[in-house]
Specification:
2 helices, alpha+beta, 21% helix, 2 strands, two-stranded parallel sheet
Length: 102
């Protein structure tokens, strides 16, 4: 069975209820914690993300993410970009920079 990807808001280091919610969600092994804004304090959010082996970029959704060409594992031309906005959006601006190819 495929696991659902779970993103969490709140529940950073020092939070009691956050750990309870994470443990409850992971009990039946149907979820995988993939991202989170665990605290309004970036360092706390980053520390919490490290405990779950999350990439730093997955722990600060309120920041601008810049990806360079070395961040991709392939050197193929990118023809499509997908932005998942759920459950209710929250993206104020989405820009893609590059050179169009035919």
């Amino acid at each position: 069975m495929r696991k659902l990807k779970l993103g969490m808001i709140g529940g950073g280091e020092g939070s009691f209820i956050g750990a309870i919610h994470r443990n409850a969600a992971l009990l039946d092994n149907c979820y995988e914690l993939t991202a989170g804004s665990f605290s309004s304090d970036y360092e706390n959010s980053k520390l919490t993300g490290e405990k779950f082996f999350l990439d730093e970029k997955k722990c600060k959704p309120d920041f601008i993410h810049n990806f360079g060409k070395n961040d991709f594992l392939h050197e193929k031309t990118v023809s499509h970009v997908r932005l998942n906005i759920y459950p209710d959006g929250g993206v104020s601006r989405f820009r893609i920079f590059g050179q169009p190819v035919s």
